[in-house]
Description:
The protein is α/β, with parallel strands linked by helices. Helices cover 42% and strands 15% of the residues. The protein is built from 13 helices and ten strands.
Amino acid sequence: xxxxxKVKIGNVLLDNRVVLAPMAGITNTAFRLIAKExxxxxxxxxxxxxxxxxxxxxxxxxxxxxxxxEKPISMQIFxxxxxxxxxxxxxxxEHGADIVDINMGCPVKKVVKTGAGAALLKDLKKAExxxxxxxxxxxxxxxxxxxxxxxxxxxxxxxxxxxxxxxxVDAVTIHARYATQGYSxxxxxxxxxxxxxxxxxxxxxxxxxDIFSFExxxxxxxxxxxxxxxxxxxxxxxxxIFKDEIPTLSERKRIILKHLAIEKRYIKKKALGxxxxxxxxxxxxxxxxxxxxxxxxxxxxxxxLISLLNSYFSLLTERAYGNKSS
Length: 326
Ligand SMILES: Cc1cc2nc3c(=O)[nH]c(=O)nc-3n(C[C@H](O)[C@H](O)[C@H](O)COP(=O)(O)O)c2cc1C
């Protein structure tokens, strides 16, 4: 059902119901292309500053880089001023966004102190103004990504869903935690179930929180009846989650090298740091990886990193890890 049935967000048809989440510093074009190759039905940019777009900051515009193979692509903005957000939404559309997503769930201090992200869960009037302003100018589907509220004592998701419904929002992603909780408690999927039960069918409900395997994804849909699921941390170094597969060693190495090659093609600056991050992501769940990761951290050049990768995979093969299947 998740992989085999399509779903429409506004007029955008997704091939399946498994979505790659926005992740700051992670879901760049290379990451998204790999997720797409493995079957993500929709991919997101990381959150992009609406002000940065309006003030034409060069660095902010780099977040808009994408390729046509990623489409449909949802681009996410954060901000707290309705006019700035509506101007930013138009910039996203000019740069190829198929869907515009508004961040209403980020609990990071730097974002919240400006009144953006999860701070909007404490000010639903402002949230509504932003939705209205963006909806007015947004010629593509509009979605919002929320947490259940600022604190567990004050859930606001049902109220925010009503605002979304009344103002033409096409989909709502619900990360099933409260802003003050960070990641300290398990996601409460009952929140997603309640959201789905209380929403009209014209708003797509995307469930999010603690999906680390395809089994988890199926369970979330089963338990909550949500229309689609979104995966964040579970997809880092593990694009196979979208395909419900466990990779062989050789397949894993092939994808690491492919990810590195795409990264280098698109991201010219700070390439070494990105390469290190990618190697660390993909080796996390593997044996002897802590020593490998330490060496990666200290490496001084790309050649050194590739040589470390080759030695590490030779070691894994020698030690017969996954040998039967590689
Ligand atoms: C490193 C990192 C960066 C994130 N950046 C964003 C972001 O830019 N925008 C956003 O809406 N959520 C962001 N999130 C939250 C995720 O999209 C997601 O809602 C959350 O991690 C719960 O999903 P998970 O349990 O599958 O990880 C980020 C999460 C992580 C771990």
